[in-house]
Design goal:
The two termini are 73 Å apart. α2 packs antiparallel against α3 and α2 runs antiparallel to α4. It is built from 4 helices and 22 strands. It is of the alpha+beta class. The chain has 4 domains: 88 residues, conserved putative lor/sdh protein from methanococcus maripaludis s2 fold; 89 residues, Elongation Factor Tu (Ef-tu), domain 3, CATH 2.40.30.170; 54 residues, OB fold (Dihydrolipoamide Acetyltransferase, E2P); 119 residues. GO terms for molecular function: transmembrane transporter activity.
Length: 414
Amino acid sequence: MGFAMSLIQNLRVYRTQILIACTVLGLAVWLGLNLWLGPKTPVAMVVQRDFVQTVVASGHIESPHRVDLGVQITGTVKAVPVNEGQTVTAAQPLIQLEDAELVANARQAESAVAQAQAKLRQLREVQAPLAEQTMRQAQVNQDTAARALQRTQELFSKGFIGQAALDEATRAEQVMRSQLKITQQQLSSTRAGGSDMAVAETALSQAQAGAELARARLRYSQVLAPAAGTLIARNVEPGDAVQAGKVLMVLSPEGETQVVVQIDEKHLNLLKVGQTASVSSDAYPDQRFTAELMYINPGVDAQRGSVEVKLRVPQPPAYVRQDMTVSVDIEVAKRSQAVLVPTEAVHNLDSPEPWVMKVVNGKAVRTSIRLGLRSQGMCEVLEGLVANDQVLATAALPVNDKARVRPVSNLVAK
């Protein structure tokens, strides 16, 4: 009994030492196992599937051209019957200026035309026939005077009358001949090509030009839509005093919708006219539509290091608006059953000799690879890896070549 009690007391004394020893032994075993197996390391599995390379960029919706609208004369705005964002038809009134003075000027000019027309009609209908009648009478008078002169000359030659009578008959015949000539000239001036007709026609032409000018200025008091489209800017209100040359509205005419984007110049070799793209707006990210690359600017923006690209949108959705910001994924290449690895797993990605840490028999082995297409966080591997290989998931992991690792969280490339 005494021995048993002594043994229990000894066990109580050494219990703490035994627990410490067991703990130290377990920790040593655990550390040794970790050193032998290596640290837990996230890996990604290499997959094989169809792969599409895209170039992603941001841009905006744009019509092929825009029309800046303004007035052609100085005036005060009377009415603006349209609002920004409104769809308008061709020839629809957009801006109306105060036009009372212009209307009065147009009426006055029309009256001047009517007066000139009346004068020309009077010349043709009254003066010309009167001149012709006067000329005929003058012709009769001249013929009478000529016959009288002939008789007088015969009588003078026979001695029946004196020199004074002959002189008087001669003078009368000369007067009649002069009057005939004058009436002939007057008749000629009233006919086509004559001076009076030319003056009347010129006066009418001037009056008509003045009337057309007045009507044009009256038309300038109203700004009409040159084509159907959408009003994307309005910088005028009723009561504003406006001047010619100032842009008051901007119209986006109906027509082909385009997407304009700036692409990093390093992707220039991948772009070709005719490539398709998927487009989405920030406001409607789930509603994508198709576009086609139609233009690549031959120049490079040196300040931004980018190239302007335009894409045609054959069937724009109803929600598309002018200058709307959009995201564009241009499909530049496609591979069938490509071997893919995550981009973040590749070391020296942009160098001639990229490589990955491939897991082989529990060790991370540096493996050189040859890359092909790249897009959306994935790289095509042409040489160095096959499907179902495992690589360290990120190139940022500080793992030495051939170091032991324990793969965890097998991240499959998507």
